[in-house]
Amino acid sequence: xxxVTCKQLCKTYHQGEVEVIGLDHVDxxxxxxxxxxxxxxxxxxxxxxxxxxxxxxxxDSGKIWLAGERIDTLGKGELANMRLHxxxxxxxxxxxxxxxxxxxxxEFVMEVQGVPADEREKRSTAILRxxxxxxxxxxxxxxxxGGQQQRVAVARAIVSKPALVLADEPTANLxxxxxxxxxxxxxxxxxxxxxxxVIATHDQRVMRYAKRVIHMLDGKVVDDERRDVA
Amino acid sequence: xxxxxxxxxxxxxxxxxxxxxxxxxxxxIVIGAWSMIFMTALMRGMVDDMVADGISVLPGHVQIHHxxxxxxxxxxNVIAPPSGELLEALGGAEVVAWxxxxxxxxxxxxERDTRGVTLVGIEPLRERDISFVAGxxxxxxxxxxxxxxxxxxxxxxxxxxxxxxxxxVVVMSQDQENEIADRGFRIVGIFESKLAQYExxxxxxxxxxxxxxxxxxxxxxxxxxxGSDYRNVETLFRSIEAAAGDGVETLPWNEIDSYLGSMxxxxxxxxxxxxxxxFLALSFGLVxxxxxxxxxxxxxIGLMLALGMTPRSIxxxxxxxxxxxxxxxxxxxxxxxxxxxxxxKDGIDVSIVGEGMEMMxxxxxxxxxxxxxxxxxxNLIVIILGFFASLSPAWRASKYDPIRAITKV
Lengths: 230, 409
Hints:
The complex is a heterodimer.
Chain A: E1 2-15, E2 18-31, E3 35-39, H1 46-53, E4 61-66, E5 69-70, H2 76-86, E6 87-90, H3 102-113, H4 117-130, H5 146-159, E7 164-168, H6 176-193, E8 196-200, H7 204-207, E9 212-217, E10 220-226
Parallel strand pairs in A: 3-8, 3-9, 6-7, 7-8
Antiparallel strand pairs in A: 1-2, 1-4, 4-5, 9-10
Chain B: H1 2-15, H2 19-57, E1 62-65, H3 84-90, E2 97-109, E3 114-122, H4 124-127, E4 137-140, E5 150-154, H5 155-161, E6 168-174, E7 180-191, H6 196-201, E8 202-206, H7 207-214, E9 222-226, H8 234-244, E10 249-252, H9 253-256, H10 258-296, H11 298-306, H12 311-341, E11 348-349, H13 354-359, E12 365-366, H14 372-398, H15 402-406
Parallel strand pairs in B: 3-8, 5-7
Antiparallel strand pairs in B: 1-9, 1-10, 2-3, 2-6, 2-9, 4-7, 5-8, 6-7, 11-12
Helix pairs in contact in B: 1-12, 2-10, 2-12, 2-14, 3-8, 10-14, 12-14
């Protein structure tokens, strides 16, 4: 079963009078349970592709399916519902809601989903422990380091066990030890829960964990490298 | 429910992100709410006073008279005194007091001057409960019975006629045959009224004496009936009208004195206009506050949208923020207004502008009147209009594109 299918995706941005190609006829298939890294230099199109897959940005042309359902034709409300229930997001920066504590940030998606309070608390307590933030649940983002904030964001993305996690430079603000812990957590979720991961990165430490690395340049897929992960 | 709790929590916390801005906005709402309620209470008090004075002058709450009496208030248009079914109705629980009167235009002369007045023949014991005059006699005494041959007149009229207590005056009118009917009266009482026009315009004599003077037997000009609340006379009016029958005209006070009646309606309209105007001034601050709050949180709103929060929830969050702001301001504003009005309930002396007030038919002491319906109306108008005012920034926030919002610098 394909988790993600993209056919002939094109996206062009306008920066003033300059036309920037974000995606140039991208064809892509990611199986369920895949652990894929999108690798590209800055402006290579990896974030644009990630946003298109996540229903955050609409392509100019082409088609996208998530778990067999076409999403490029969905309305805003349907896309919001799809993101809420099927995708976990980790953004590069500005990941947390400043007025909520770490625990409340983690519970945010579950709360919107309508998960009961006791269940939310149970899951957020467990995930806080898993990401090494036990005892920091009551802190607001401003009281945490960048790495801690990113771990809270990761915890929020995976706590509701989505089928697909899209992460944009998730280790960008983390030290190597924390980055390693985080990637091991991703791998564990991938292996034990079958969660599909698509990670946009140019961090070699992250790519080491990928089963597949898709290299992009100027909005095109230039190489699709399948790996045997140790 | 989960969503609502979350929206409420987010709205509440966001409200206090910028304490100073929130407190300034709350202060503006407090002042607005205070002024709405306080000024409304003053205006209501003034109008109530005018209406109550107007009613106490003579009309009562309901009046019965000859169908032509209002067009031609002379002795030609008299009616029989209450009897039978009407008398029974006048004894009903809704009737607080009632009295009959003979009321005609007349001329009063002293040895110095002559003035046009309204001569009112009254039943003193019954009249005591209805109109102002008995309680306002400041010199001499009030009439004791319908046969009392004395005359009670106003202080200002005494001054104009250059007469005084114990002196004789002549009152002249027309009888039913259009012949001059006159009679000498000794002034037994002098009354003072809040309004000069009453002191100059009315003289009171015993009803039987006036009936004899005018040769009308036991016939009367009107029956005045007092209920318990001048704002709610419909039931009383209907029952009296039914009992009085078709041969007479029965009217509630607001039709008898249409100026006073329309005053209440105008006041209701004025209160709404006043509240809306104050709110409009407030709304600029409110919308500005919300626009700033949304502008500062563009990336955060984008994040929430990206995570799957619906645009409707974003809209709800901003509107909730606005409503919370309004509720806090209104609660404090209400308490402040009530705390200001309560100590002033005994009256505010506005005698410095007493003459102007008198021209409007109001007295020189203002008694603020705080009505629950005015408080509810002010609060409802502010909340409802505030809700609509906040829709614009909330709508804009809900329409953000998640990715553009998250990446906004």
